[in-house]
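Researcher: Structure for this, please.
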Amino acid sequence: MALSDKGRRWPLLLSVAGLVGLGGAALAQGAGGFDAQVEIGRAAYVQNCASCHGEKLVAGQFAPALKGPEFLGHWGGAPLGTLYDYIHTSMPPGNAGTLPEDTYASIAALILKENGGAAGRGIKAGEMDGIALPAAPAGARGESGVGGLSTRLYPLPPGPKIPDRFANFKSVTEAELDNPAPEDWPAWRRSHLGLGYSPLKQIDTSNVGNLTIAWAQALPPGINMNEPLVRNGVLYVFGFGDNVFAFDAASGRQLWRYQRKLPQGAQLNSRKTIALYGDKLYTATSDNHMVALDARTGRPVWDVVLTDRPGMRIPGGPLAADGVIMQGFANNTAGGGLIVAVDADTGAKLWQFETAAKPGQVGGDTWNGQPGDTRKGGSVWTSGSYDPVNHLALWGVGNTYDTGPLRDLKPGMNNDALFTESTLAFEPRTGKLVWFYQHNRNDQFDLDWVFDRVIGTLDVGGKPQRVVITGGKSGLFDALDAKTGKYLKTVDMGLQDYIDRIDPVTGDKHVKPEKTPGRDKGPVYMCPHGGGGRNWNPTSYLQSTQTLFVAARDVCTDLTPATGPGFLSTGVNAVYAPQPDGDSNYGVLQAIDMRSGKVLWETRRRQTPDMGVLTTAGGLLFTGWMDRHFVAYDQRTGKELWSSGVTGVPNASAITYSVDGKQYVAMVTGAGNPLSSGIPDVIPETQMPSVNSSSVYVFALPDRK
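Model: Predicted structure, token format:
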């Protein structure tokens, strides 16, 4: 790796061997000034760097000197911030960025001092403007003295040609995201429509048993639920700690890496998705920014703050459509959730939408008289879909845990609590709310409907109709008219027992009164648990047969009165409970005919699913389970055809793509979404990995010999 500035290139090999002790300490580089920081850096250097670069920064056995004419021949006159960025983003080799920022800054201060430079203050990441390394002495050529290549006696034999995956790069178009090339997976769930289906069929039911690892890459350790993107032979994936990687999708060779510098105290989390649009890749960050990266280099193009409202989080990811980047926010503090939109080219803010409607807004009078500044919930923790026919961005909204003020209807009030449990349809550029539909009013159970919105065709009343299909944790799936939001029908997976009837015209769900919980009512047993039913796992819709494939959890709950406030503010906690007359199998995989509402087949497994569903034209269905197995099924019968163990919990959804005529199947591991927790209470033999690894695995058929 090399960094360039003003046309110069400065290679640097800085090897950091040890990652304990000072590597994990908080070094107060500002206290005591520059000289004190240098001494802190010296101690950190001895522990982490000296084994390769030498104790005195020269004469290292495995890496070049970090001071003197040779070093300054490469780095002389460079901004100290450039050196810091290089060290922070590339060292130690194979595990870059793992030391604290202040440790890297202190080592940079040491290198500056040892080369005859100084600063009038302790230096910090992002605050090194005006500080540069001393100029190179006359005649310094920057020879490393270690490593390198000599061809004095023998020429270097030619190696294989490395493909340039960006050589013919063209901007990602709207039409491409609506209907991608068969070999690509350029959007969450593959396209704007959210189908989770691929037309590739090289891997099929007859040969899937031969799948083997094509390549794998470790990602930064930590939670990860990211569904990768693939376009023109490049695989893009998000990693813990706000990293984004681009890999050669056929070989796994890293093409670039973006690593964000986050402020201290930022709550690190994962993203379900990133987005491609035009010549940029968009990623939301843990400090609630949106960053546009050049899709060819990973270099930031713009970086904007989406919101400074306290308590906001981004577990989902951006939706890109009509030149707009839209992002949903989760929040259960006062104020509720948000959807924010910015211009794809400039990052200029276009609009934002309050998902917990306030007084004076549409839906603002549906909160049982609760003051606007105390309303909670309406989190948006899944990305949206886009209907290119009706030009509408479709978003799902979650529930509220502050159920107490809403439970009992006050005279003359409305307690529906808009826009919780709703589908919202926006014009992307203006933010105009064209229609909305509330799937479940005043949810008292944590059984929200915030998940993927599938756009497709469904025969309704004997006629094909463009619809939006989405389901809640209850295992109920609603179909709505895509243009108007008009309710059409509901299909029940058969996991719930708390709704006894559904209005055939409006879709209004009637809750059995005895199932409504509260501290004043004693324990209430009901199904499913708030962890689902269906939950974070996206579905897959096979348009040709109008079949919906769903992975879910068949587990119930005791809503028990709490001694304290309770998980729900009606004063109850949600405790896992087995099903009545259960078979001890809590994982469910179903194929549902959306025309008839019938379950075509069901596969049950003791372990529960953590992945979404991928289907292909090869007749296959892929998903993954809590026992860390990635499994392929026959989508016609539900028969298991192939399985592979993986090192981490498979939280994300699998994808498939093709490069140079060869089909691959990829998936990401990294425990962290709520489906990874709680289940050991019901399945005692289930163990979460004590080491939470994260990796991208890529499978393919063996090459023919």
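Researcher: Any notable elements?
Model: Residues 147 and 153 are 16 Å apart (CA to CA). The chain has two domains: 2-114, 174-700.
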